[in-house]
Fold this sequence. Notes:
Subcellular location (chains A, B): Membrane
Number of domains of chain A: 1
Shape of chain A: elongated
Oligomer: homodimer
Keywords (chains A, B): Membrane, Transmembrane, Transmembrane helix
Main location (chains A, B): membrane
CATH topology of chain A: Monooxygenase
Protein name (chains A, B): MtN3 and saliva related transmembrane protein
Low-confidence stretches of chain A: none
Number of helices of chain A: 4
Radius of gyration of chain A: 16 Å
Structural class of chain A: mainly alpha
InterPro entries (chains A, B): PQ-loop_rpt (IPR006603), SemiSWEET (IPR047662)
Order of helices and strands of chain A: HHHH
CATH class of chain A: Mainly Alpha
Mean pLDDT of chain A: 94
Amino acid sequence: xxxxIMGTIAAICTTVGxxxxxxxxxxxxxxxxxxxxxxxxLLVGCSLWLVYGVHLKNPIIALANGFTLSFVMAILLLxxxxxxxxxxxxx
Amino acid sequence: xxxxIMGTIAAICTTVGxxxxxxxxxxxxxxxxxxxxxxxxLLVGCSLWLVYGVHLKNPIIALANGFTLSFVMAILLLxxxxxxxxxxxxx
Lengths: 91, 91
């Protein structure tokens, strides 16, 4: 029981952990220092974890990675949006 | 067999995914846009996952999170190092 609570807290931390990055990005309108290669690898990794979690019928793995996947996608989209806006501003 | 290969690739992606962030940070000497709240939450989350993985005697969970933990620590340390250097430069 104690162990599954620990696993759940672990999953919550590594999932909601990406929300502060989205908030920071929206506030500063800068995500230049965040590596796009890291984001892409996390995207691929979380997609595979999601499929693996569904296969294992493990709701913690599936849900946590489903959410993380959407957060990482959001960061990647925001990053390219800010990049495009910067390019426009410099015209 | 196919599924455990998929799980392993997933774990490798979400673990080595942080290496490009370290490389980018070292190259640009800037990690300002990377959220310190995200890094701290990932640090706590990976530590709990590591303990949970050891408890479950699951080497994939334990190893992947052990490595991710050390990469996230490195990013956090580099970030505060670059921050301190910037503060010194502006004196």
